[in-house]
Design goal:
Order of helices and strands: EHEEEHEHEEHEHEEHH
Largest sheet: 5 strands, parallel
Number of helices: 7
Radius of gyration: 22 Å
Bound molecules: adenine
Structural class: alpha/beta
Oligomer: single chain
Distance between the termini: 29 Å
CATH architecture of the largest domain: 3-Layer(aba) Sandwich
Strand content: 15-25%
Shape: elongated
Strand order of the largest sheet: 2-1-6-5-8
Number of domains: 2
Helix content: 25-40%
């Protein structure tokens, strides 16, 4: 696979939140190695009045504040050259899943718009044909942690970030199943033995056990994924 850089561009009112957790572990190491880049822009820099206003009260009332379309449009125009899809993090968006993460990792980068307050004027989201992405059915105080989660999940898939020893093949979601449970030394801990087959050295038996466990646990823990998996098997 051709190794090319992945460029993340983040539009936020809190640029100081970055790189935050992305400076550590796999993401931080690969950032230092130049496998991916991170650029943050302060949305407030695009305010044009002397009070640096970025938001307004929502039409129709209802409290909170809404980021203005012209401010967001100016910020987006400033990063017009940045590669990849324009992503607005919002609980109204499509739920992030591993397929979306894989698709994003196949692009040269992405531009993330982090909302605060009650949200962003929808007209600029629509006009820029932004992809609206949610990381789950709960409300964060802003899109920044959501952007970090999307970036983290993409970065670990970039070529050269994870070791070759273990591909992404066995991971949860890579084959539509949750991953089997894992065990390490000692073989007996608190009187509980790790599954004997795992220490047997029989690669085929181990693979069979792992698949059976992955199926059993997916069925038990995530009936929604199990349904999808069964449907995919029938295709
Ligand atoms: N902003 C606030 N909550 C969010 C969520 N669940 N996903 C993405 N962005 C958000």
């Amino acid at each position: 696979m051709a190794v090319s850089r992945w460029d993340a561009t983040v539009l936020t009112l809190f640029p100081q939140m970055f790189p935050g957790p992305l400076a550590s572990s796999l993401a931080g190491k690969s950032l230092n190695q130049g496998i991916w880049t991170l650029k943050t822009l302060d949305i407030r820099d695009f305010a044009s009045d002397k009070h640096q206003t970025v938001d307004g009260t929502p039409f129709g009332g209802g409290g909170g504040m809404v980021l203005k379309a012209d401010i967001v449009a100016a910020a987006l125009a400033h990063v017009a050259e940045a590669p990849g899809p324009r992503i607005y993090l919002t609980p109204r968006g499509r739920l992030l899943d591993q397929q979306t993460v894989r698709d994003l990792a196949g692009q040269p980068g992405a531009v993330f718009l982090c909302g605060r307050y009650e949200g962003v004027d929808q007209r600029v989201i629509d006009e820029a044909s932004m992809m609206e992405v949610s990381i789950g059915d709960y409300i964060l105080s802003g899109g920044e942690p959501a952007a970090m989660i999307v970036i983290d999940s993409v970065v670990r898939l970039l070529p050269g970030v994870m070791g070759k020893e273990r591909g992404h093949r066995d991971e949860s979601f890579e084959n539509g199943l949750l991953e089997h449970a894992q065990y390490t030394q000692p073989r007996v801990w608190h009187g509980i033995e790790a599954p004997a087959v795992l220490a047997s050295g029989h690669h085929q038996k181990i693979a069979q056990w792992r698949l059976a466990e992955a199926e059993r646990e997916t069925q038990e823990r995530r009936p929604d994924l199990w349904e999808q998996y069964l449907r995919a098997q029938q295709e």
